[in-house]
Amino acid sequence: GRNVLASRADINVRGIAVAIPGPFDYEKGISYIRNLTKYENLYGFNLRQDMSSRFSGMPPEAVKFVNDARAFLLGEIHGGVAKSMHRVMGVTLGTGVGSDFDVDGRIVASGPDMPPDGYIYCLPWKHGIIEDAISSRAVQERYRAFCGELCDVLEIANLGWRPALRADATLAGGLNTHEGALTCQPVAEAHRLTWTAAEQVIH
Q1: Which of 79, 95, 157, 187 has the fewest CB atoms found within 10 Å of its own CB?
Q2: What are the CA-CA distances from residue 155 to residues 26, 35, 158 (Å)?
Q3: If you average pLDDT over residues 113-142, what whole number do you get?
Q4: What's the CA gap between 23 and 5, in Å, rounded?
Q5: Which residues pair with 90 in a beta bridge?
Q6: Mean per-residue pLDDT over the chain, rounded
Q7: Of the ranges 63-72, 106-115, 121-130, 190-199, which is most confident?
Q8: C-alpha–C-alpha distance, residues 111 and 114, integer Å
Q9: How far apart are CA 98 and CA 114, in angstroms?
């Protein structure tokens, strides 16, 4: 970032805003992320001090941090599809599952029908929690269980949808149609329609 800005002398950088997942001390700019296979080397590191020191004359207080799920939701409620919504839930999917809630343009951490602190990643789901089922780590673990190797999610995606569905029965269960053919038996039976088994499509 510093090298890019150095080439643009006409830009006067007065502050930096960073969206980053937790656990993180957003007031002090210190990361407490560990055991999540990401940002391990930043644990306990003061990012605010470090980043401000890289720009001449920038005070530490000019470097701001916000949770990445919150940043996403703020963008949607102030300039996106959620501008006119009364109540909004924002969810980000990546290494983990991020979430935040808005009521009338204000981010809230508690209230009716909300989980504690607005966190959904730790809510119970089947035999574990939500993050165990739909995060990128969950995709990797399911792929390893079926194929015997641990791959990056991008590597799995690049294999194509057929190999991905063959490797994951849960994912295959979400295939509803393919090239005009209905592949979801419950939907077909409910509407008295013919259907094609997903296994025939993905093999």
Answers
A1: 79
A2: 33, 22, 5
A3: 85
A4: 29
A5: 100
A6: 85
A7: 63-72
A8: 6
A9: 14
Peptide bond into 23 cis (omega under 30): yes
Distance CA 136, CA 102 (A): 25
- Backbone φ, ψ for residue 64 (5° rounding): -110, 150
What is the rounded distance in angstroms from the CA atom of residue 128 to the CA atom of residue 145? 16
Mean per-residue pLDDT, 15-21? 91
């190797």: which residue's tokens? Answer: 149
Residue-wise pLDDT for 164-176, tens only, equals 788 777 777 778 8
| 50, 2 Cβ separation under 8 angstroms | no
At 6, is the pLDDT very low, low, confident or very high (cuts 50, 70, 90)?
Answer: low
